[in-house]
Amino acid sequence: MKTISIGIIEDNVDFLHSLCGVLEENPSLQLKTWNSAEAFWAEDTPKEWDLLILDIGLPGMSGIDVLKTYHTTESRKSLVISSLQTDDAIFSALRNGASGYIWKSELDSLHDTIQTILDGGSVISPSIAAKVLLSFRKPQVLSDPSSVGVEVLTPRERQILELIVEGDSPYQIASLFGTTVGTVRQQIKTIYKKLQVNTRVQMVKKARQFGIF
Questions:
Q1: Which residue numbers delimit the HTH luxR-type domain (predicted)?
Q2: pLDDT digits (tens, 9 = 90+) for 117-166
């Protein structure tokens, strides 16, 4: 049986105990835990884990900070298990490499969740999926698009624009949306056309100029 290494960063002792209890039901899982991000990075052992599980609201360095530093290669996989339900926490985690985001109350299907992520998939709680869909459906308007001939962006185009401003590449955006890089690049071209720009710098400047953010 192949051993699967799982790293866990969680400062809540009671929840960590419950989490490890669930994971230890699978004898193929090898666990290592830390109570803070600082303790995780202080380890001399290699930071290559089959899966890193972490909370967002950690003492000191946050889980988002960990994700930003940890995901330097596409092969690394992470799962956020948190009680934080803010849009900022959820979208920041997904934008910074997390393959999944579930609530701390949802450990019943944890083994299936882990296997899905290890197989290259993504898992988010139904309520989080609803938040993602709502973010796409919010009406988006420019301050005065008619004054400069700029068309209104679609919800998906605005989401892509926000990700580009955050520094995401077309490959990362395609992975997040479950689509092809070619499709994302075509959508970026459409955004260029609607904003009447030719470069990424001009695109970001125009977006801020007309109050898209």
A1: 146-211
A2: 999 888 988 877 776 666 655 544 444 444 443 456 777 888 888 888 77
Angle at 117 between CA 128 and CA 51, to 5 degrees: 110
Domain ranges, ordered by start, for the chain? 4-134, 138-209
For residue 139, the one-letter residue type is P
User: What CATH architecture does domain 4-134 belong to?
Assistant: 3-Layer(aba) Sandwich (3.40)
**pLDDT value at position 201?**
77
Please give the class, per CATH, of domain 138-209: mainly alpha
For residues 92-114, average pLDDT: 91
Residue 43, phi then psi, degrees to nearest 5:
-65, 140
List all residues 6 or more positions away from 19 whose beta carbon is below 8 Å from its beta carbon. 8, 10, 53, 81, 107, 110
Q: Helices (H), strands (E): how many in the chain?
A: 10, 6
- State whether residue 204 is helix, strand or coil: helix
Q: How many CA atoms lie within 13 A of 56 on its CB side?
A: 23
Q: Are both 4-134 and 138-209 of the same fold?
A: no
